[in-house]
Design brief:
The longest helix has 19 residues. By secondary structure, this protein is an alpha+beta fold. The two termini are 25 Å apart. It folds into two domains: 58 residues, no CATH class; 132 residues, Cytidine Deaminase, domain 2 (3-Layer(aba) Sandwich), CATH 3.40.140. It is built from five helices and twelve strands.
């Protein structure tokens, strides 16, 4: 599973050094350094993403040490969104169910809280209905789309976009699509593709489940 590796490594007391001249990435932990080339990692919105199984093999990390979790803090709202999508998109690809979370800001850092860890057939309808019960003021919303016959899974639906308007006024809505796109919708109605390197669905309709 891909992770935002700089956060994972630094959280475990290591460092990540990227060499722009060679595209090599050096990860150092407890005196051991391993160099990864472009065959071993990908870039997601400017962040290096290394498969966690490599970090487990090379540095002896446990699986729990190499994953992202709700309430983990990130430097930017988009890093929090990317981490959420990396953790949840493989699950959405497996069961064809949406997953989503508000992203909150606290003391200059951002974190997500998984509202639907087991997936849902319509995340947006539920977050709209339960908006008033949220603790604190969310800054953004992030969610996955499975392949879907109800709307275009590769882009934002009208209910998705509504979260930037009254009474929500979120700064952005983020989306992970079945084809691996990481997208952002903002109140000025601008849609930006931040990356094309998120996990890709392995089949259109797993086990014949049509959302």
């Amino acid at each position: 599973m891909l992770t935002c590796s700089s956060y994972i490594i630094e959280r475990n007391g290591g460092t990540v050094d990227s060499q722009s001249e060679t595209d090599d990435v050096t990860v150092t932990h407890k005196g051991k350094s391993v160099v990864y080339n472009r065959l071993h990692y990908t870039i997601i919105n400017g962040r290096i993403a290394i498969d966690n199984t490599l970090l487990m093999k090379d540095f002896g990390f446990t699986e729990n040490q190499t994953l992202h979790y709700p309430l983990e803090t990130f430097n930017t709202v988009e890093d929090a969104a990317a981490a959420f999508l990396l953790m949840t998109m493989p699950k959405t690809h497996d069961d064809n169910r949406e997953r989503g979370s508000y992203i909150y800001e606290k003391n200059g850092y951002y974190y997500y809280f998984t509202d639907f860890p087991n997936g849902h057939s319509d995340v947006i309808a539920n977050v709209i209905a339960n908006f008033s019960s949220r603790i604190g003021r969310p800054a953004a919303f992030v969610h996955t789309h499975p392949y879907c016959i109800c709307h275009d899974g590769a882009s934002f639906s009208d209910p998705d976009k509504s979260l930037t308007g009254f009474p929500f006024f979120l700064k952005a809505v983020y989306l992970g699509t079945p084809l691996g796109a990481f997208m952002r919708y903002t109140p000025d109605r601008n849609i930006t593709t931040l990356s094309q390197n998120l996990p890709v669905a392995h089949t259109e309709y797993p086990d014949g489940k049509w959302r």
